[in-house]
Amino acid sequence: MKYGHHELTAHDDPVHANEQWWSEHAAEYVAEHGDTLGDADFIWGPEGLREADIEFLGSLRGKRVLEIGAGAAQCSRYLASRGVRVVATDLADGMLDHAARLNREVGIDVELLRADARHLPFKDAEFDVVFTSFGVLPFVPDLGDVHREVARVLRPGGVWAFSALHPTRWMFPDDPTHHGLTAHRSYFDRTPYIERGSSTLDYAEFHHTLSDHINSLIDSGFTIDELFEPPWPAGRTVVWGGWGPERSPILPGTLMIRSIKW
Q1: CA separation for the pair 235, 232 (Å, rounded)
Q2: Which pTM was predicted?
């Protein structure tokens, strides 16, 4: 296995590689983070910020909602438990298997669909709100492919809200201790992080700067309604990858953007 920051080859299909990776690692991911994510809770990121507390999506009364990159669909299950009409999609079959299992165990029957967020199987203007919590965006090379498709399925005035890795994190090692506070990469270096087997691409993650996010949204027909960088809560002891109580009070970890379709 080779891993690190390398350019893709002409034969690489990063979205397909990530689909396979997330399917194969779904059980491991759910086992590791299930206690933090819950079965029917809506958490925007490792800081533990809950939709119930901030209502980042706004009022959902009478609205049709779509989650992309839903994973095991904990967020959608939370919304459904409160009477919201919601559909949860993901590209990884393994994740959807866990979503279906949790539906049965919790007794909340969220509609689940396998779908590529760049090619959604829905009509134009079918939804009032689309969201993802840390899904999809780090795993596609072109943000516009997702933003334009989200714009297509949203009605005019609809909301597109997401959380993602804060772009400044790309400069630092994935270390939650004080050792992770020394930058070792240029913020402007967009060379993807990849993992490669003997002959195939196994995983790819892409860096999108803040201007990449903002300009892609504008170019796709959105106006920015709110940009939020949640602080690390005092006393929070959870360690999640590069997030934790030692480093995260100093360095932003999550970017949240709510935008409105023209």
Answers
A1: 9
A2: 0.97
Q: pLDDT per residue over 208-247, tens digit each?
A: 999 999 999 999 999 999 999 999 999 999 999 999 999 9
- The token duo for 69 is 């990159």
Q: Which helix (H) or strand (E) holds 18?
A: helix 14-24
Q: Where are the domains of the chain?
A: 2-261
Tens of pLDDT, residues 88-143? 999 999 999 999 999 999 999 999 999 999 999 999 999 999 999 999 999 999 99
Phi, psi of 25 (to 5 degrees): -105, 10
Partners of 118 in the β-ladder: none
* 2-261 to CATH, choices 3.40.640.10, 3.40.50.150, 3.30.1330.30, 3.20.20.220: 3.40.50.150
88 and 175 in contact (C-beta within 8 Å)?
no
Strands 64-67 and 127-133: parallel
Contact (CB, 8 A) for 189 and 208 = no
